[in-house]
Structure formats: C-alpha cells, structure tokens
Amino acid sequence: MNFTERLRASQNAQNSLVCVGLDPDPRKIPQFLHQNENPVAEFNRRIVESTHDLVCAYKMNLAFYEALGEKGWQALRATLALIPKSVITIADGKRGDIGNSSEMYARSILEDFNFDASTVHPYMGFDSLQPFARNAERGVFVLALTSNPGAKDFQYLKVQGKPLYEHVIRRVKKWNTAGNFGLVVGATRPAQLKTIRALALTLPILIPGIGAQGGDLRKAVRYGCDASGFLALLTAARSVLYASSGEDFADAARAAALSLRDEINVCREEYFV
Amino acid sequence: MNFTERLRASQNAQNSLVCVGLDPDPRKIPQFLHQNENPVAEFNRRIVESTHDLVCAYKMNLAFYEALGEKGWQALRATLALIPKSVITIADGKRGDIGNSSEMYARSILEDFNFDASTVHPYMGFDSLQPFARNAERGVFVLALTSNPGAKDFQYLKVQGKPLYEHVIRRVKKWNTAGNFGLVVGATRPAQLKTIRALALTLPILIPGIGAQGGDLRKAVRYGCDASGFLALLTAARSVLYASSGEDFADAARAAALSLRDEINVCREEYFV
Of A82, A251, B145, B185, which one has the greatest count of Cβ atoms within 10 A? Predict the structure, then answer.
C-alpha cells in the first residue's frame, strides 16, 4: 500500500480523522510529572495511552524534542515505541536541504526513528524533498499554505495570476507519481482550503490549527476532506494536551480528543454520506 | 556589536573569508578514526585544530549530527567548545516553523548550543524567523537562491516581473533593522549573485557550493563581497574535510583551507583594493 492508501485505511479502521500534535512543552505539562526522570516521556506515554484509539495519527513537532536535548530524543523514541502500528506517525520537522543533507535528515526520520511520514519546506524544490519520498509507503507533506501570520509574506505572492501556494500544489501533484505526497494547509484558511481541495482531489491534507490556533473545525472538515470524507488530517495539539493541568490531564485529553473525533464525524455524515 | 559588525571584525582579524562546512559523514572520514569512542567528534577536533586560524566561520549542517543520534549531538557540543570565540559559528539547520515552534528551535540553537547564527527557510514568513533574529548579535541567514538543482522549481518563479528570490531579498532588507540578517546564495549562481549583491549592498551573504559543488570561486569573491571586500562567507565542506582520506587528513585539510583563503585574498586584492 502506498502512503495515501495507508492513511485512508487507518482513518477507516480508527473511524477518526483526528491527528493529535504531540508537542510537549515542559513549562505546560502538569507540575507533578516533574518527579519523573523524563517528564515529557511520561506525559506523552499517558497521552498516547488515553487517546490512541481515538486518532488516525500523531504528529510530533521535532522542535519540541530538539529543544530538550538528549532527553528530548529519548522521549521521542520512547513515545514512538508505544504508538500502535494502526496509527500513522508524522515527523513535523519542516526539513528541506540540498540532496546529500536531506538524505541525512530522511535517514534519521524514516529509518532511525521509523516515522511513517514527514513535513517539508518546498522552497528548495524537488531534490530537497525526494529523499523523504523515495519509499511509497512513507508520506511527505509539503508546506503549501500555513496557519501563521507570516504566511502572507510569500505564500500569497501572485505568480502568473495565481498565488505561489497554488504553484507549489501543482508541482506536488506532478511529483506524486507513487501516491505518497500530501499538503500542509492551515485550518485558519478555510476559503483557500476549499480551492486547494478542488485543485488536489486525491492528496492527503494535513490541517494544523484546530483548537488553540482558532481554525474553524466545520469548514476544515467540509473543505479539507476528499469526496468520500477522508484524507484530511485534522490536527490539534494544545487543546488536547493541556485540556487539564491537573492529575486528570490524561482523562481530560481523552475527553477533548473524543469530542473532537465525534464533532468531525458528525460533520462528515452531514457532508459526505 | 550587531552580527554584521561581528562578522566583519572576524573576517578582518582572521584575514579570511573562508567558512568551512563541518559536515562530517562517518562513511567518508578516515577509517582509522573509527577506533575512537566518538569518531566524528575526533574528526572535527582535528579539523578545527588544524584550520581555525585560517577561517572566519564554521558552518555545521545539523542534518549530519541529527543523523547520528545522541553521538551526533555530543560531537556537535564537543566541537563547538573547541572553536575560538573569534570565529563565527553557524547552525545550518534551515529551520522555519510557526512562532512557538521556531522559538523552540531558536532556543536549542542559540541558547543551548550557543551558535552565533542560523540558516532559515523563508516560506513561512516573518514570525517564523523572528525567534532567530531577536538578539542583534546573532545572525540569521535566509535562503534566497540555493545551489541545488531544485532551486529552479520555485525560486525563479516570476512575481511582478522579478524572480521570487528577489522578493525574499527585498523582504529581508526590510526586516534587517538591527543589522543581523543575511542571505544564502549558492556559488553555483554567479550571474544572480552579482544582481543580488547589487540589491543587498550591506547584507552578509553565505555562499555554499565552493569546491565539491563546483561553484566558480573568483566570481563568488568578486560578486559576493560588499564594496570593501567583506561580508561574503565562502563556504567549502567536502573539498576541505576529505582532502585526504589517510592519517594526514588534518594536514591536507589545512593545506586546502590555506590555499582557499589565499586564492580568495588574491582576488580581493585584485577587485577591492
């Protein structure tokens, strides 16, 4: 199975389009966890245990692990070992470098850590992304239109009458001969998400910005899914991870993930059945 | 002193525009080093000891360290500890993420590892770069026109009649209120380097692609320097690191760095005095 098929299978089996962003910030996790030798690993363990049946994917932003040094990489490895095979793992590293350097990043992410997919910057073009895409089972999500304010600096620049991000998408479609490319489109851009899905009918779309970043969930479902109600990865991090700052944080995370899953599934039934 | 002033001071004191890319590949370093507990740390130690008086900067591509896991981060830390303060250190990580994630990367690179400068992707715009630029003493090199084949995929797209990379440069100039922004321009693009320097008279330009990637050294000096013959960082990695694969590798690296420094200084005298 190529990555797109794997993602669809996971979303179908889990009955969920929820992707939880495992971006643990030591300053935000419950105080009592700091007794543990590796507080972030323990935090992740409990979040994964209490949510893994409710999600189709976990996305780890590598910045949060890199910032912790060796303890961070240990936590990342320990967390990955707990995630069931049926759930997709995404290394959100936004890498992109010349060929021999991207090879190194890809080796670390896809071989050493054995992630199912990665996120990449488009700016350096095809040879900078190819090492992440060589195995059709592994996905590569290319940044198209991001959720942050700075998206307006370059992504909307007009090239032959169309915004730059549309050129990125057209190029990604050409590269997607093996069925393992996808896009990143922020949930904070619903109108653009609609035109992007119309342009890229069959690509997985990773949609961060649900929850803390304020993206509109109903629109993200409606415009982000493919025609059969799949292939959108609706991603929330802070609103799930920090649903409670007390000892009940894992239960609160479960409740938040469950409500997100159900809210999404209600929308899917409304729009796609 | 802001970063631009620091770079100029270093280039002046060292009488060198050479930046050595410390991108150690365990498969390429001399065989006998594999007896050491951390072969890459030992390789770097001997390269730094034999070249530090000949360079103005070292650039570490983080991919090479990340690929080695914990040993890689140990090697990076050990290497940084050996580099004299007079020499600029650049974390070539090509990062770029939403604000709170870029904060994490910046904390790791600028606080934990204490690098003098970083490289970043422009695609996500200002808030994705700001955490790397907050301290005027620390530099941030924004990818403008890269040395790899994929540069043509997006960087040359025409926006209002000008290539995208020129828009990136104009934006960087606006952001550079504190004197710590720079650009990355591949040595494989001499004609474009000339127009870029004319656009960005006072920005540091990091110029990879000398040596193994085949960039034209004389043109890189002529077009990459500012009007006084400074602020180009002429970067070679493989041609210095692997000048010999024998026990004399550090001497051979010194000879390669020396010849590069002198060749550059001859050009500078010709063009700028």
Answer: B185
Dihedral angle, C-alpha B108, A140, B144, B213, nearest 10 °: 90
pLDDT in 10s for each residue of chain A, 273 residues: 999 999 999 999 999 999 999 999 999 999 999 999 999 999 999 999 999 999 999 999 999 999 998 899 999 999 999 999 999 999 999 999 999 999 999 999 999 999 999 999 999 999 999 999 999 999 999 999 999 999 999 999 999 999 999 999 999 999 999 999 999 999 999 999 999 999 999 999 999 988 766 668 999 999 999 999 999 999 999 999 999 999 999 999 999 999 999 999 999 999 997
| For chain A, the helix, strand and coil percentages under 3-state DSSP, each to the nearest 5 | 50, 20, 35
Give the containing element (helix H, strand E) for B264: helix B249-272
Query: Cβ A164–B160 below 8 Å, yes or no?
Result: no
Query: Among A208, A185, A211, which Cα is nearest to A196's?
Result: A185
Nearest Cα to Cα of residue A113 among A80, A162, A157, A155: A80
> Using the beta-carbon criterion (under 8 Å), do B150 and A159 form an inter-chain contact?
no
pTM over 0.95: yes
DSSP string, B175-209: H-TTS-EEEEE-TT-HHHHHHHHHH-TTS-EEEE-
- Name which of A98, A103, A150 is nearest B128 (Cβ-Cβ): A150
If DSSP codes are grouped into helix, strand and coil, which group holds residue B88? strand
Instruction: Give me the catalytic one of B94, B173, B194, B219.
Output: B94
Q: Is the confidence metric ipTM above 0.90 for this complex? A: yes
Q: Do A154 and B167 touch (CB under 8 A)?
A: yes
- CA distance linking residue A21 with residue A28, whole number of Å: 14
CB-CB neighbors (< 8 A) of A163 in chain B: none
Instruction: Identify the closest residue of chain B to A142 by CA–CA distance.
Output: B123
CB within 8 Å of B234: residues ≥ 6 apart: B17, B18, B19, B187, B207, B210, B217, B220, B221, B224, B260, B264
Domains of chain B: 3-272 (3.20.20.70)
